[in-house]
Amino acid sequence: MKKIILLIFLVFQSCEKVIDIETSFSDERLVIDAELTKNIKENIIEAKVILSKTAPYFAEEINFINDALVQISIGDKTIKLDFNKEKKYFFAEINEIDYDNDYTLYIKYDGEVYLSFQKLLKIPKIESVTFGKRKSLIKDEVEMLITFTDPPTNGDYYLWKFGPKGQGNKYDYLAARDTYINGNQFTFSFFIDKYEYFKNDDYVTTELFGITKDCYNYLNVLTSQAGAQSGRPFSSANAIIKGNIYNNLNPESYPLGYFRVSEFDYFSISKKNAPDGVFN
Fold it and tell me: For the segment 116-164, what is each residue's pLDDT rounded down to a tens digit?
């Protein structure tokens, strides 16, 4: 019996050995998260561009870039974005509202020039967001019912944003298209964790953006690759996913990320609007 106990002890001792894993990293690229958004009730566009570099797997911090030249052009007008040190992104307000011509994103960094061109997309308004009565199989989830009317044009694509939730004010996203709802009023159901979403605030906001078909496909591929790697922390992506931004001087050194230009609408809902017993 003593020999068995000693053997078990030695096995557990051997599990405490620390193994250092060296990983190679050579394909450093610029990562660009750029968006121009216009509230459907206002006549101003907010431009926000986050720049960073790809990093090794075990890197603990994001390598933000603050010394690039970032500009948005529309027609003969060019607007320079300034870096916000606190929020770590480039920002500007744009008064030029144009649905017919392209907004041009121009970024100059480390001797390279990055470009992208997108038109401002119109969207329908969010008509209502209410709490639903259906129960989820997950105890702490509550149903949200979102209603809007899709325009009578084929091929509309949307990006829905729900939040904030949990620590760090994270958001959930849903890419959708109007294949079966074209030109009709539509109400869809979305379940959220009531404690995670309402942890920091008494309100949750639903936002709606327009996206292109290319952006819709890009987000779906991005989501499917992320899901395929679930549970496999050291697996690599099946392929590098290119966005709609290109390197004008060196095409092979293309960046990662996407440039979106869209109207948006939002609707906030409070705990107080929930049916009796949901939060009690």
Answer: 999 999 999 999 999 998 888 888 888 999 999 999 987 899 999 998 8
Taking only the tens place, the pLDDT of each residue in 58-112 is: 677 889 999 999 999 999 999 999 999 999 999 999 999 999 999 999 999 999 9
Residues 6+ apart with CB under 8 A from 183: 150, 151, 152, 153
Cα–Cα distance measured from residue 256 to residue 239, given in angstroms and rounded to the nearest whole number: 12
The length of the chain, given as a count of residues: 280
User: Which residues contact residue 71 at a Cβ distance below 8 angstroms, ignoring those fewer than 6 apart?
Assistant: 78, 79, 80, 81, 105, 106, 107
**Domain extent listing, the chain:** 28-231+243-273
pTM: 0.85
- DSSP output for the chain: -HHHHHHHHHHHHHTT-------------EEEEEEEEEETTSS-EEEEEEEEE---TT--S-EE--S-EEEEEETTEEEEPEEETTTTEEEEEE----SSSPEEEEEEETTEEEEEEEPPBP-PPEEEEEE--PPPSSTTEEEEEEEEE--SSS--EEEEEEEEETTTTEEEEEEEE-TTTTTSEEEEEEEEEHHHHTSS-SEEEEEEEEE-HHHHHHHHHHHHHHHHTTT-TTPPPSS----S-EESS-TTSPPEEEEEEEEEEEEEEEGGGSPTTS--
Neighbours of 35 (CB within 10 A): 19
